[in-house]
Structures are given as structure tokens and as C-alpha cells.
């Protein structure tokens, strides 16, 4: 497979979550756009992956190139890098949505992608219906959803509004509900694109507690963020991405040294 | 406690490996049919939210169409109403199932782009969602079916098990059509328009309202080579106490097998790319 793959330090125990990514390369075909005319302007840009002209008018964006990553239970990985450096793409690949073009991704454990809170939310449906639907999408059985319904409903603090359609909610109320459902599912691997902070000051406090609890119970957290303080706070390891190329994973203590490195571009 | 969930994704290792993964997608989607049903039922409920009759509005408009067309064609083709009305009613109801499923199939993946691009839900879940949604709509229209069966004493002559077998075969066929249109229209956004035109054209080429007369020349060709005629006839003829054509069931079985082979082959070849089409 990948020549750059390193043997894992210790074989993972069968009862613990792990992530193993070897030589991962991800290319996106972009259909219906011609990058040829744009390419000379984009020759040296600070953002984005690499653009390649492919056959018949479609353009290929190489979002991730030859990335290796080994994580064990207890690892809290912070992903840093410019816009378009491939952080979100990596998270989506880890969630199982994107298939590798080369290399392999292996994840053991239940994955909870908290990438987009509004996923599967239907604004015309009531709060309760959305809790049920979102819970089902997150992999709960109808029975499990009913079991958790009360706890989720209580956590939102929306009371009688749960019987109203979501479109009548304020943005903050919608975020509360989405957050409550999305975080109701216990998982071994949590994927987050930016730390989730929703609602008013009071809610932010309890939301923060809930999220922390979830992270603590999960084996592995992968958090992509531009906020270095956040990364220092929640992560114990860190990886920097540059134009789809990942650095090695270093301890959070070496964050400054990692940042001081020249970019690969 | 061992952790059961395990995901292994690799770059393409050739067609056989991709086929295995496509089959795995199928297996997971069938195991998660409950989710497809939840989504489908949610679609039905949310489409008609705030309306009193809900999906029965379509039933009602179908009933009006059945009466209008039934009387008109009975007059035009000089056939007794007792034959025309059940023929037209069953035709319109089951044609609705076939054509709506194929047309809505185009949206199966496009509509689910959010879920497909950030979860590992099986892709076929969204094909089943479209099929089940149309089945749920059909359940409402059964009011019309039951009404004509009771009103025209068809229950004395009908062959219900055969009609159900016909329905099962029709479902097997519209599912692959749904998968095919879902994939192609995710890649080429002109396809939904084309599919819609094809289905509209097919409605006129298929004896949905008009009774096929003698099978000679062009008429024979139109019926023999029209897959939708066989699909419709496999359900309608047994319900009306007539035997479907001898070839109909074999045509449907062969078409289901061939269609699934083509659609699943395409799914195997494009599965990795579909999420990028969206």
C-alpha cells in the first residue's frame, strides 16, 4: 500500500477505539467547471488544495495527499491549518462519507460526526419530530430514541415549544435543539469541525459541560479549529495541515514549534 | 467489551473489491430499512403538513380524474362503464406508483447530499426511502382500489395473490429504475427533465386509460415492447379477473434481473464518486 506507512507503536486492544490512516490521498473531481483559465491566477495561493486539470473538462482538486495518522483511545487530536488545507475533508473521510482514492482509513468504534449541527433538521417539522428524525439518522433505533426523548427534550429547555415547528424558533432555540440531539448519542470517536458553542450565556455553560462529558467518555476526539487556545484547552496532540499534506502528530506542548515551521508551499 | 463498529475504507482495489463494498452498502441499507421508512414517512407527513386531507388530496384528485376519464373513454371507445371505470381507476393508481417512483428517484441522492457527505449511512438507504415513500402514498390511494373492487364486484373474480406477486415484481423493477435515475441525475442535472418527459410520453403509449384493442401491427409492437405495459398489466389484469399475458411475468422477471445487474453495476463503478457529484 503506502510506503510511508509506519508500523503502529503497539497493537490496539480489541476493546478500545482507534484510528489508523495510512497514505491517504483524496481527490475531488469537480464537474462542470474549467480551471484552466483560472489556473494561472491560482498558481500561488494561500488557500485550498491543489488544482489539476483532468480529462474532459472536469477539474480535480487534490484535497489530501499521502496522509498518515495513528490515534489511540485517549488521544485528543487538534487539527490546525489554513482554510482549505484539508481539515474538514479529513474529518469527512474519517466519518466514512468520503472514500479514499489511495491509502486506507481504519476506524474502530462508533463514530459521531458533529460536523454540521443542522444535518437532517427539517424546519417545517416540530421540535419533537426533529429529535426523533435526527436521532434515527445518528444511528439510534426507534426504541432508543423514545428512551432518550425525555432527556433530550429536558436538555433543550424548550418545554412547550417542542410541539411547535422549528421555523418558529429563534436561531438560538434552533441551535439548542440541534445541539441537544447531536450530542445525545454516545460515541467512541467524536469528530468536530470547530468547537460547538451555541445559545445564550447560560446555555453555553451547560452545553459546554455536556460536550466535555461526551468528549471524556469518547475514546478519541478529532477537533479541527483555527482557535489555538481552544486546541490547547481540549487537545493533547496536534497535527498541522498544509495544502492537504499533514505534518506528523506531535504533543500539544510542541504546538509553538509546529507553528514556527515554514509552510510546505 | 469489544467494540463492534469497525470501518475500513481503502482506495480502489479493482472491480471485484468495489463490488464487495457495494454489496456491503446494500446489506447495511437493508438492515437499516427502518431508517429508510422513518425518512419516507417523515417526507409524506411533512409534504402535507397543515393540510387537512394530506396525501388524500392526491387520492381525491385521482378519483376525480378516474371518474372524468372513465366516463369519457367509456363513451369514446364505446365500452360499458363497468369495464372502463375499474380499468381506468386501477390504471391511474398503479401508473402513479410507477411513474412517481421513477421521477422522484432522480432526487434520491441529490436531496440527501447533506447526509451523504458527512455520515457513513449506506447510499441505498436513500433509494429505499424514495420507494417506500411512494408505497406509503399508494396506501392512501388504496381507497380508490378498494372502492372499485367493492363497487364493481371485482372481488368475485379477482386473483389477489397473483396481483400481489405482480406488485412485488413491479417494485423490484421500479427500485432499480430509481437507483439508476438517482445515480445518473446526481451527475447530470438535465436527467430529471428527460426522465419526466419519458414518463409522460410513456403514459400515453401505455394503456393507462385507453383499452388496447386488437393486437395487430403497431399496437402489438407498442404493447410488447413497452415495459410499463407489462408492469401495469401484472397488477391490473389479476385484479380485474383477467389473466395477464403469458409473457408478462417472465418479461418482468428478466427485466428485474437485467435492470438490477445494470443499475448495480453502475452503482459499483460510481459509488465512490457519487458523493462528489452532489
Can you give a write-up of this model?
The complex is a heterodimer of chains A (265) and B (278). Chain A is 31% helix and 26% strand. Chain A has 265 residues and is α/β, with parallel strands linked by helices. In chain A, strands 4, 6, 7, 8, 9, 10 and 11 form a seven-stranded mixed sheet that branches. In chain A, strands 2-3-1-5 form a four-stranded antiparallel sheet, covered by helices on one side. In chain A, helix 3 crosses helix 4 (142-156) and helix 3 (127-137) packs parallel to helix 5 (171-182). The model of chain A is unreliable at 1-8 (pLDDT under 50). Chain B is mainly alpha-helical and 278 residues long. The mean pLDDT of chain B is 89. Chain B has twelve helices and one strand; from the N terminus they run E-H-H-H-H-H-H-H-H-H-H-H-H. The A-B interface holds A 1, 14-17, 25, 28-31, 92-93, 95-111, 113, 115-116, 119-120, 122, 124-125, 129, 132-133, 136-137, 141-142, 165, 188 and B 1-3, 5-12, 34-35, 38-39, 42, 45-46, 49, 114-121, 187, 271-273, 275-277. Strand 5 of chain A pairs antiparallel with strand 1 of chain B, so a sheet runs across the interface.
Q: What percentage of amino acids of chain A are in beta strands? A: 25-35%
By helix and strand content of chain A, what is the structural category? alpha/beta
- Chains forming the largest contact: A-B, 46 and 34 residues
The gyration radius over C-alpha positions of chain B equals 20 Å
How many runs of DSSP E, i.e. beta strands of chain B?
Answer: 1
Q: Ranges of chain B with pLDDT <50 over ≥5 residues?
A: none
